[in-house]
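Might you be able to check the backbone structure tokens below? Thank you kindly.
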Amino acid sequence: MLSQSQIDTFNANGYVNGGKVLSDDAVEVLRSEIMRTIEERDRADVPQPVMVHNFSKDEGAPVWQIVDIWMSSPPFRALISHPKITEGLAQLTGASELRIWHDQIQYKPAQVGGVNMWHQDAPYWPIIAPMTEVTGWVALDDADEDNGCMSMVPGSHLWGNNIDFLHTFKSYEDMPAEFDGHEIKVIRCPVKKGEVHYHHALTWHGSHANKSGRPRRAVALHYMTGDTRYVASGNHVMKQYVEVADGELMQGKYFPKVYPTAE
């Protein structure tokens, strides 16, 4: 369970480290599943996730993205309902029910791993509302300044949808000192392997390149509260899996309940 101090920090800053949730042995299993999934991405005879690709589109600076690895990997299927992760989410959101929206691996290979530009999560999710979801980001390697850890802008979750502004940046270093009267501070957020780092879906965040000799593997577990509804006018890779009508609560076999008891 998170302490009141951690909850207060999240409410003020839009992010907080939730502490260690996985043993070293569990981390090793999940690492192996990531590498297996990438290696077997073209095989028709094994279960596949929704997507496996290099989202940087630069072969010289790859960031491997796997969407919904839980659908094809039993260890990741177990992870999405991990009680230490989901209980923390319930505390931070006040939700009585949580469903997985989708998961997302981001793997930055050693020495060449690319940049994940500044963004907010919620504007990329136009088929669900409201924009109040929270992510549990679980490090599967020590993520630090050397290998491309995340950075956050504290308080930015309170400023609304600013994705158009963030998209004006030409490079990762373009963050200004202020925005719309708000002082901007960029805080590096190292996360040890096996720890979960929570962030709000409107918190500004990104990560710099991995120039170290170590990989940076992590899984972002994006959750929905029980009041999340489907918005049919939007578009997203997960839209093809939606089984409810416009305006209805998001649920179904591709968005299983993970808290308080998994489906």
